[in-house]
Amino acid sequence: MSEPTPYDHDRSAYSREGLARLVLADHATEVADSAAGLVGTRNDVDTGLAGRVSQARQLIELAERTLNSAIVYEVERGSSWAQVAAYLDISAEEARERYTPAVQAWNTAFEEPYRLDETGRKRIPQLPTAAYDPNWACTQLDRWAFLRHVGIDDRQAVSAGLVMADAADEPVPAKDGSRAMALAGLDAERAIRLSALTDELRPLLATGTEMSAIQSMLSARGIGVMDSIVVTRELLGAGPGDLGLAKTLVLATPARNGEREQHHALVDELLVALDEVDQA
Predict the structure, then answer these.
(1) In this predicted model, what pLDDT tens digit does every residue of 84-143 receive, in sequence order?
(2) What whole-number distance in Å separates Cα of residue 216 and Cα of residue 220?
């Protein structure tokens, strides 16, 4: 571990997800600024032959770096390789192989945020600049966004939505680059199994498979009601209200008629028991 840096205290206020989002925003501004340089025509006569090709090539390189930082951010906030791959038109295994080095470099940089140069006196950040000094990055990026009207008169278009360290207890990213879903109360083996099942099914939804077909598939494979509800909730996005919708989707599957009747009977028994307790 390196010696402390002047920015350690500032950085500790941000979650890793928030820092990764800052880096993505910073890299995106460089793409935007580079692209803007290709819009105006007044200086074309002063540009050497093929000079605009050089600018366009640089734009592609900056966009590739932005893609890497977007993937790091998505991994930090819990996206699986299957989810990432669905938007890259490649397999989950190919996405993992191609972009794991970027994720590993990001993880390693937190262990050693900087290295010393050959003289042993100058610090060279290993973390991207926006993550190394996030307060400075917020100031610069908020100003950039305000001047370019990102949001209406929003002077905190970048910093306002960042996930800070104390916003919530954050799950630790799993070694495979994804968080182990929000499976509170499940043992580790079951959580891993359901997470893998979710990753397997998600691309089917992305390619147009109906949720009803997913439910029939879960039933045919012998996946129980509770596990199916957990998986379906994750497929829906695990947002507010998704648990109730997941339960409805699972129990509405024709193949689960018997299980649905058992569920309703169990609920009825519970309500009777609660009524007896209230009366007592």
Answers:
(1) 999 999 999 999 999 999 999 999 888 877 777 788 777 777 889 999 899 999 999 999
(2) 6
Nearest to 16 by CA among 173, 209, 244: 173
φ, ψ of residue 198 to 5 degrees: the values are -60, -45
Residues ≥6 apart with Cβ < 8 Å to 153: 146
- Mark 247-272 as b/e (b = at least 16 C-beta within 10 Å): bebbbebeebeebbeebeeeeeeeee
pTM, full prediction: 0.59
The encoded tokens of residue 109 equal 């940089």
CA distance 113 to 104: 13
Whole-number Cα distances in Å, 253 to 249, 260, 263: 7, 9, 13
Q: Would you state the pLDDT for residue 264?
A: 58
Q: What are phi and psi of 14, to 5 degrees?
A: -105, 145
Cα–Cα dist 153/181, whole Å: 36
Lookup result for tokens 């307060």: 135
For residue 52, the one-letter residue type is: R
CB 119 within 8 A of CB 9: no
Lowest mean pLDDT among 15-29, 56-70, 149-163, 244-258: 244-258
Helix (H) or strand (E) holding 214: helix 211-220
The phi-psi region of residue 48 (left if phi > 0; otherwise alpha if psi is between -120 and 50; otherwise beta) is beta
Tracing tokens 């009747």 back to the chain, one arrives at: 261
Residue 31 confidence class, pLDDT cut points 50, 70, 90 = very high
Of residues 29 and 175, the one with the higher pLDDT is: 29
Half-sphere exposure of 224 (CA within 13 A, CB side): 7
Contact 26, 64 (CB under 8 A): no
